[in-house]
Amino acid sequence: MFDLAPHPSAPIKRTRTSANIQLGPDRCLPPPLQEEKNAYLVELTGPSDPANAKSWTLPRKMRSAIVLGFDTLVASWGSSVYSSAVTPVSMEFSVSSVVAILGLTLYICGFATGPLAFAPLSELYGRKLPIVVACFVFTCFMFAAATAKDFQTLMLCRFFAGVFASCPLAVVGGAFSDLFGNETRGIAIAFFSALVFIGPFISPIVGAFITESYLGWRWTEYITGIMGALALVLDVLFLEETYLKTILQKRAGSIRKETGNFAIHHESEEEVIDFQDLVHKHLLLPLKLLFREPIVFLITIYTAFIYGILYLFLEAYPIVFAEYRGINESVATLPYIGLILGVLIGCGIVIAFEPRYNRKLKENNGLPVPEQRLLPMMLGAILFPIGLFWFAWTGNYPSIHWIVPTLSGLLTGAGIMTIFLQALNYLIDAYLMVAASSIAANTFLRSFFGAGFPLFATQMFHNLGVDWAGSLLGFLAVAFLPIPFLFYAFGERLRKGSKYAPTDLGKNKKSDDEESGSGNDVSGGGEGDSEGKEETVGDGN
After folding, report:
1. 1-6+50-243 shares its CATH topology with 288-541
2. Cα–Cα distance between 172 and 3 in angstroms, integer?
């Protein structure tokens, strides 16, 4: 989730070769344009230009934001609605329950692979086209999964549905950056992230009631497909393109057609897509950041653990409330409501800290203050293990009322939301010039944690018992707890020694302005300049 579409900040320009290029039978290259080249460039006409999505009216912004939010909800819904179908799928296709869980894990594996394609595509063709195409293909695969005649077909359809479901998770963060400015973007991203977490907790509830009814497990996939079809219709009718470059490219094309002057163009049309450059900057750089940067490595491991717990609960909650307490399987999913409320509480905590962050941002001349992102994360790091221990030592005893372990979800959900969201915001602010690559590394690793944890959840809780299995997770959470506190104290010092996260952005920005006459790019930082310099992503919100 929350990926920022990567692209080179200094795109390669087309240059004339020394070859004798012929345009026709007796015509070679014409002389260069005599007038100033900038006279032919299509740019924003002003801050209120409708090509700038930030200048739109609030109702217009909200229309696109709501549609994007629904896309995100459908994508995350599809990941866990299958959890209630594991038992009937294993019975119908004569496979073990562990093998049947692959329908859940393969979908999440799709989350890891999809953004590698959709993120760059959103930079080449805008936000709307990839989302519309991905939504259509996702819907097709969900209906194919619903009608699968064998287990292999079901698993393949679930995997590819996950690949295309990852598109909104990869693109919506960038679209929100197009729509919202510094003061409101953090709040918008918080609501977006809440949908990412609410989807996996609310869909098992609905899926359980569907599976136990006469409809059967296939309707968990049918209903997800119907939701995908509805999202597709909303995308086509109400979603507007928000990416500035794509809007200006279309404007330039329209002007060329109207005037017949084919010299008119947008600057991005001079870019050349270089495969080696894409591999060097977007495939290798995330791995370099992951294994060379202590901040990226520890934050990624922490968020991967959190993400794994998110999907582990899909197996742990039925064991506690259905097996041990004898509650009807569909009713036993209702305790997920505690986690949903916890996520909303976490969203409120993050939003409550936004005014403080905006004040610090203003005091720092609009430049990010990464360590200020860690304050809600510190609170979440304390709440999260408390919630896990609470769940572990109250869920194992049927004599304790079911509401007690259910209420543990308030702390656990709040911890998941605050840790995960603010960890990503911290990476964006700290690694501003290579933010996309740092998030790509995080996304890739955490998705595999989310895919793997459900596979051993059942055996873990059966063999260790709810109390000690939950306690083991709690102890791991305690081990991770110091991370935000350590980075709050020493993060700036670590960034000063980093090749990719320079702390002298203001100085470098001034130097760039003096040399180039423009203040659009923020650069600097040793090897980060040559290996991974990327476009500044908003202000890290």
Report:
1. yes
2. 8
CA distance 423 to 538: 17
Beta bridge partners of 272: 12
> Tokens 């960890």 appear where?
423
Exposure of 532 in the CB half-sphere (CA atoms within 13 A): 27
Decide: 349 and 414 in contact? Cβ < 8 Å: yes
Note the pLDDT of residue 16.
47
CATH topology of domain 288-541: Growth Hormone; Chain: A; (1.20.1250)
Pair 497, 395: CB distance under 8 Å:
no
| Distance in angstroms (rounded) separating the CA atoms of residues 415 and 395 | 19
pTM score of the predicted model: 0.82
Domain boundaries, the chain: 1-6+50-243, 288-541
Q: What is the DSSP string of 371-383?
A: GGGHHHHHHHHHH
Q: What is the pLDDT of residues 20-53, one digit of tens each?
A: 777 788 777 777 665 677 778 888 888 888 889 9
1-6+50-243 maps to CATH 1.20.1250.20: yes
Please give the Cα distance from 133 to 157 (Å, whole number): 17
CA distance linking residue 450 with residue 305, whole number of Å: 8
Q: Which two tokens stand for residue 184?
A: 């409101």
